[in-house]
Every structure is written in structure tokens, then in C-alpha cells.
Write a structure and sequence with these properties.
Blueprint (H helix, E strand, L loop, with lengths): L1 H33 L22 H9 L4 H11 L4 E6 L2 E6 L2 H9 L4 E3 L3 H7 L9 H16 L1 H25 L3 E2 H18 L5 H15 L12 H28 L9 H7 L10 H32 L1 H17 L9 H4 L3 H14 L4 E6 L3 E3 L2 E3 L4 E5 H5 L39 H18 E5 L6 E2 L5 E2 L4 E6 L7
Parallel strand pairs: 2-8
Antiparallel strand pairs: 1-2, 3-5, 4-12, 5-8, 6-7, 9-12, 10-11
Helix pairs in contact: 5-10, 6-7, 7-8, 7-17, 8-12, 9-10, 12-15, 12-17, 13-15
Length: 495
């Protein structure tokens, strides 16, 4: 009897001790990061900073890895109410998650109180002189230098000619192959070819193949935890970045040697322009700046464009009524086209009113860019809550774009919602807003528009796995990368 009593007592003590340790560890992160704030901790947003060191990253990764991305934010909402601001611990830093339009707008637009605050993994991989990591002054300088040659209307009209040729040729090749293709993978090949042509006048060859492979590895590490050990995505991504930097540096060294040898060649691509361009003080971009800018645009003009294009085509395939409406608009554009004009012109892009709604709806539903990051330069009060100096701010785009209070049936793809809906500021921000608006947004929309023009008119998508599951990291995509056949329509069924 006594023996049984002592066993029960020891068991109870151990269990109580484990519970106590569990509760202490569960609150340790919160205590450590908030206790030093003094009175300011009383005005912090509600939240839970998770476990020591790892914070909320396990729940974040589990939510996305297992196909329930909205469960991460909904857990905060369920526990703490729809406040639109929550404290957490993300990517190694105390963080305020912002998921409502008003605080998002204030954080994105206020350069006086917030600066870029991306996690170490993203900062290191994109480069310390990329748009993500530089100061506000340097950011403004780089935007001034690169805006016209990369996203200006004149530059886009020039790129348009190459974009439409490579898209039309690729679609024809896919149809002639008469075999299943990974639709997303093939579109990624197109957008990579386009960006390589713009930057390096390079369309194919061993160098481009290596760069495409290494960039894919780098991209997988952008939203990973910064664990620089073999076997982790961040470690592989760092190695890929070093290889990409070496290739791009070799290209610039070769161009510079060509200039020094007085060999006269026409300078037509972005590398030549970036190597020559000067600011108002006569200062040129250094090699590190040029390389980091190119890697930044690879992400904006390659990954974002490819995923958004694939989803737009897939959504239209799943919704025949929207497909027919979008196609009718493209047929009308062709009917109005002068007889002497061959192929899609740049000015016709402006006539695609309904297709523009299709693209916006795709960007809203899919959220190619899941979130953005800032860091508070000083203590900031927003909507009654304090964001302490030095804390990160994670702007959760998905929470805004899929908010039923803003968009009726938010997960439903419905381009026609934009017929009457005029988004209030801060409620539609697929490319961010403010001074750090994504610099490749216009190029992305141009690529999607040109692709959908030719696709709607002349081709048909037949997915092999219509009910394929979805992966959400590093970008939202079907698990089979949209395995499908592309069939060319008969002349009688197209324009």
C-alpha cells in the first residue's frame, strides 16, 4: 500500500514538474522580449511569441507545409480576437504581424518610422545592396537609376516585341510535342529566358541552364530559417548565390575587357546600361549593386510572373464563363487590329480591361508574395498598439486579400467582382505600396497579359490531375506543377 502511494506521489510530482517546465518555456520568449520594454509592454498587441529560439516558426511551417496556410493567422484571431495586429516571434526576431488594411497602409507608407526589415536569410540571399537591404536614400537612388531602363514605358515597349515572340514560339512547341508537360515549369522557363534576354542578351546555352538551376535553389531558401548547415535550404541557397555572383561578375569583367580593347559593339542589354548609367553626382553603380539588382529582378520578373501566369490560365480553365469573356475581349482586339499590323502591339495591352481584372483577381486569390517585412526605427503607435523600436513588422498580404469583411467569398475566383469594386487604400497590395513598391510589377503584368492573349485565342489547357493538391512554399503552386497537355485550337474555333 505504501509502495503504491509513493509511486503515485512520484508520478504526480514528475507530471506536475513537466507541466510547470512546459508552461515556463511556453512563456519564456514572451517574458524575455517584453519585460525589458517597461510600461510599453502594456500597449503591445496581443499575441504569443512561442517557444524560445524557434518562436512561432514551427506553427508557421506546419500550416504551410500541410496545406493550411490560413490556419496560422486564424489561430491568432481565434485566441486574441480580430485585432489586425499580433505579437509573435518570426525568423529569429520579435515581430508584430499586421493583417488589417489600415495598419498595413501606415507601415508600408511611413518611411520616417519604418525601414526594410527582411529576415537574415532573405537579406543575405538577395544581397546587401539589393532593394531589400539598403537605406532609404540608397533605395531612392537605385530606383531613380533603374526605373526607366527596367520598367519605363519605352523600355517595356521594346521588351514587348521579344516577349510576344518567345511566348508564341513556346506555346506552338508545347502543342506540337503532343505530350504532357509541367505547365508551371515551362512557363518558368519562358520568364527566365525573357529576363536573361533583357539583362544579358542571353537566350540559351550552358550558362543560362546553370543560372536557372542555381536560381531555383536560391529561391527555395528565401523564406527558410537562416540555418547555415549542410542539408538545410538556406545553406544550399547561399552556395547557389555564390555561384550566381561568380557568373555575373565574369560577364561584367568580360564586358569591361571588351571596352578596354576598343572593340565596338552595340550595347543593348541591361548589364551594359547599368554599367554605364550615372546619378546626378556622376556616380556609377558598382559591381555589387548591379549583381544584387539583377538577382532582385530575377525574383520579381521571373518567379512572380511565372506563378501568376500559370494560376491565371488554370483559373480560367476551371471557370468557362470567365474564359469565354476574356477570350471574347482578345478576339475583339484582333478584329480591330489594322490589316498591316501583325501580332499583338504594345498599345493593345492597354485595351485589355477585362483581362486586367483577371490578372488582379489572380494576384488577390493566390498571393504570389505572401508577406512583406519592415522594421520600426522608433517606437510607433498604430491603432492604439505600440510597435517597439527594433521590432520587425510582418505585413500579412494574404490576411487582407482573403478577408471576408473586404471581399465577399474571398477564396472564390471571380474577376467580375472588380466591375463594381474600387479597392480602398491598403486592401489590394499584391506588389506592396509606397516607396518600396515591387520594381518589377509592370514587367510582370506585361508578361502575363501577352501570354494570356495568345493562350486564350489559340490554345487549350487540359490538366492531367485537376484535383491536384497545392504547395504553398516558397510559392503557391500545384503539387504536380500543373501537369497538362497543351492543344492548339482548330482555326474555326479561334480568331
Amino acid at each position: 500500500m505504501e509502495w503504491g502511494f509513493w509511486v503515485w506521489w512520484v508520478f504526480t510530482a514528475l507530471l506536475g514538474g513537466l507541466v510547470a517546465v512546459f508552461l515556463i518555456l511556453k512563456r519564456a520568449n514572451d517574458w524575455y522580449h517584453t519585460s525589458r520594454l517597461g510600461e510599453k509592454q502594456c500597449s503591445l498587441p496581443p499575441g504569443d511569441m512561442g517557444w524560445p529560439l524557434i518562436g512561432n516558426m514551427w506553427s508557421f511551417l506546419i500550416a504551410f507545409k500541410f496545406g493550411r496556410p490560413d490556419s496560422f493567422l486564424s489561430n491568432f484571431i481565434t485566441r486574441f480576437g480580430p485585432t489586425g495586429m499580433y505579437r509573435a516571434y518570426m525568423f529569429g526576431s520579435p515581430t508584430i504581424i499586421v493583417s488589417a488594411p489600415e495598419p498595413c497602409r501606415k507601415v508600408l507608407m511611413d518611411d520616417e518610422q519604418f525601414k526594410s526589415g527582411w529576415p537574415k536569410s532573405t537579406f543575405e540571399l538577395m544581397g546587401r545592396k539589393s532593394f531589400l537591404g539598403i537605406s532609404d536614400e540608397e533605395h531612392k537612388r537605385l530606383r531613380r537609376l533603374t526605373a526607366a531602363p527596367i520598367s519605363g514605358q519605352k523600355a517595356l515597349s521594346i521588351y514587348h516585341e521579344y516577349i510576344k515572340d518567345v511566348i508564341a514560339t513556346s506555346l506552338d512547341e508545347w502543342a506540337k510535342a503532343e505530350r504532357p508537360i509541367e505547365f508551371l515549369t515551362e512557363i518558368r522557363n519562358i520568364t527566365f529566358k525573357i529576363i536573361m534576354h533583357i539583362f544579358l542578351s542571353c537566350e540559351s546555352g550552358p550558362m543560362m541552364d546553370v543560372m536557372e538551376e542555381e536560381y531555383a535553389t536560391l529561391n527555395h531558401g528565401l523564406r527558410a530559417m537562416a540555418i547555415n548547415l549542410p542539408g538545410f535550404a538556406y545553406h544550399r541557397a547561399l552556395k547557389a548565390r555564390r555561384k550566381l555572383v561568380k557568373i555575373l561578375q565574369a560577364v561584367m569583367d568580360k564586358r569591361r575587357a571588351r571596352e578596354n580593347s576598343n572593340v565596338s559593339e552595340e550595347k543593348t542589354d541591361m548589364v551594359d546600361l547599368l554599367m554605364e548609367i550615372e546619378d546626378e553626382n556622376g556616380r556609377k553603380m558598382d559591381d555589387e549593386e548591379i549583381i544584387d539588382v539583377m538577382l532582385m529582378y530575377l525574383n520579381a520578373g521571373h518567379e512572380s510572373s511565372a506563378h501568376a501566369t500559370m494560376w491565371a490560365a488554370l483559373f480560367l480553365h476551371k471557370h468557362p464563363e470567365y474564359f469565354q469573356k476574356a477570350k471574347a475581349e482578345q478576339e475583339e482586339i484582333v478584329r480591330r487590329r489594322p490589316l498591316m499590323e501583325k501580332g499583338l502591339s504594345f498599345k493593345e495591352i492597354k485595351q485589355m480591361e477585362y483581362l486586367s481584372k483577371v490578372i488582379d483577381e489572380t494576384l488577390r486569390v493566390v498571393n504570389v508574395s505572401l508577406f512583406n517585412y519592415r522594421e520600426a526605427k522608433t517606437d510607433v503607435n498604430i491603432c492604439g498598439y505600440t510597435i517597439p523600436k527594433g521590432w520587425k513588422v510582418l505585413i500579412w498580404y494574404r490576411g487582407i486579400h482573403l478577408d471576408p469583411e473586404i471581399y465577399m467569398n474571398p477564396k472564390e475566383f471571380n474577376p467580375s467582382r472588380w466591375d463594381e469594386h474600387v479597392p480602398k487604400r491598403g486592401t489590394f497590395i499584391p506588389f506592396g505600396m509606397g516607396s518600396r513598391l515591387c520594381p518589377g510589377s509592370d514587367l510582370t503584368k506585361l508578361e502575363i497579359s501577352v501570354f494570356l492573349h495568345y493562350f486564350l485565342l489559340y490554345y487549350k489547357l487540359e490538366p492531367l490531375n485537376p484535383e491536384s493538391g497545392v504547395r504553398y512554399l516558397p510559392h503557391t503552386r500545384p503539387k504536380d506543377n500543373c501537369l497538362a497537355t497543351i492543344k492548339k485550337l482548330l482555326p474555326s474555333s479561334s480568331t
